[in-house]
Design brief:
The protein is an alpha/beta fold and 417 residues long. The chain has 2 domains: 19-296, 3-Layer(aba) Sandwich (Rossmann fold); 319-416, Arc Repressor Mutant, subunit A (Orthogonal Bundle), CATH 1.10.10. The protein is 43% helix and 17% strand. The termini are far apart.
Length: 417
């Protein structure tokens, strides 16, 4: 069985939700809530249009500890309803949230269960002006879904949830196309990396299975060469992640594992967008969930996709908890000066430009990186200037237009680290 695989049938009890799936749903709900708060935070705005797409919608409900709990289609609708209520509280100029929902499900019984669930709750006619409940495959329906998103919003403002079973139902080509054709879209993609790495093989059946991922025979050979090596699992994950992000081409990516006590393998939840704020919001939700979301490594600039200290990685599960945050700060304090020197900060480097080139490799939020930069400024390792070249007031909020500058000559403190 690859990833989450549930069975629904009309008039039958919903399947049981496992620990890691519960944590995944919590992350998705938290992200949607914060996304809507940020998007609707401008009090001058009076209308907000967007499309929410669930490409592998499932049956809409689960059972958890004897109670029926919502799946992602209902979570999406609940969070829009909540946003309309919360964002309009005390607002003089009402905010009209015009949302369309597109729910796609291939399996007949599962589709009928979802249809029944929406009807019982009076939601079947609330899918919005460009919404639809579709029985089919996400791949076959993508053309129409993209058009619906464009009709709802001129730049296609949308969130695509692609909670696939396994790793090859949503091709990376499709994800790249979404982000290219819909400039304000975001994609949340689940990817059963552990399953792929467990079964990697130079066999025709496996090579065919990874075609949607865009992996070639040469890519598979690279993974196989690492499989038996010391620290090979971590390196295989890094190579696979590099290949995935290269194929998709998103500007900002947050890929982290999620698993629970009842799961022997973990999946990646990969958030992809063209906007630094979106990446930061997703990372904030990882931190808010604490150690239900895990990865390996120190969390710093060398966490993902770089040649790393395998002994260190093997000893440390990064759990987005207070211990991990302390370790993150220490690691960044060591690494950021060198990274700034490498990136030419001696001549001054705009913060936004530097972050765009570095943030995909770390679990640090913009706030956490800012704390490190201020700590380094206190040691005179960096200068922080406004866009106009004036020294920034210590401890003030950093802006992407601020300029970071390293001394022309390295300090004795810097060399000693």
């Amino acid at each position: 069985m690859k990833g989450d695989s549930f069975e629904w049938a009309p008039d039958a009890p919903p399947p049981t939700l496992q620990d890691h799936s519960e944590r995944k749903l919590a992350l998705i709900r938290r992200y949607l809530r914060r996304y809507l708060e940020v998007l609707g935070g401008d009090r001058r705005r009076d209308r907000m249009r967007l499309t929410l797409i669930d490409g592998f919608a499932g049956g809409g409900l689960f059972t958890r500890h004897g109670k029926v709990v919502p799946g992602t289609p209902l979570i999406m609708m609940e969070e829009i309803e909540r946003a309309a209520r919360v964002l309009n509280d005390g607002r003089h100029k009402p905010l009209d949230i015009e949302a369309s929902y597109v729910f796609v499900e291939k399996r007949r019984d599962t589709f009928e269960h979802l249809k029944q669930t929406l009807a019982i709750r009076g939601l079947a006619n609330g899918l919005g002006p460009c919404g639809a409940l579709i029985r089919g495959t996400f791949e076959a329906e993508l053309d129409g879904i993209i058009e619906r998103a464009k009709m709802q919003h001129r730049t296609g403002r949308s969130i695509f949830l692609l909670d696939q079973t396994g790793y090859n139902q949503a091709s990376l080509h499709q994800v790249r196309r979404i982000l290219t054709e819909l400039p304000t879209s975001e994609v949340i993609l689940t990817f059963a990396a552990d399953w792929l790495l467990d079964y990697v093989a130079d066999a025709p059946s496996f090579l065919k299975a990874v075609e949607p991922v865009g992996l070639t025979r040469n890519d598979v050979d690279r993974l196989l060469a690492l499989k038996g090596a010391a620290g090979g699992r971590v390196l295989m994950q890094q190579v696979l992640l590099d290949l995935i992000t290269e194929r998709i081409g998103a500007t900002f990516t947050t890929p982290f594992f999620v698993h629970g006590d009842d799961a022997h393998r973990a999946i990646w939840i990969i958030h992809l967008s063209a906007h630094p704020k979106a990446r930061d919001v997703m990372l904030e939700q990882h931190w808010a969930l604490g150690n239900g979301v895990l990865h390996q490594g120190p969390g710093s600039l060398r966490m993902l996709g770089h040649k790393t200290d395998l002994d260190q990685l093997a000893m440390f599960d990064f759990g987005f908890d207070p211990f991990a945050e302390n370790k993150l700060h220490s690691s960044l304090f060591e690494e950021v000066p060198e990274a700034l020197w490498e990136d030419g900060a001696a001549d001054g480097l705009q913060l936004g430009t530097w972050l765009a080139g570095r943030v995909n490799r770390t679990a640090a939020t913009k706030r956490q990186l800012g704390d490190v930069l201020w700590a380094l400024a206190g040691e005179r390792e960096v200068e922080i200037l406004t866009a106009g070249g004036r020294p920034k007031r210590r401890g003030s909020r950093l802006r992407e237009t601020d300029v970071i500058r390293t001394p022309r000559q390295r300090s004795a403190f810097s060399f000693a680290r």
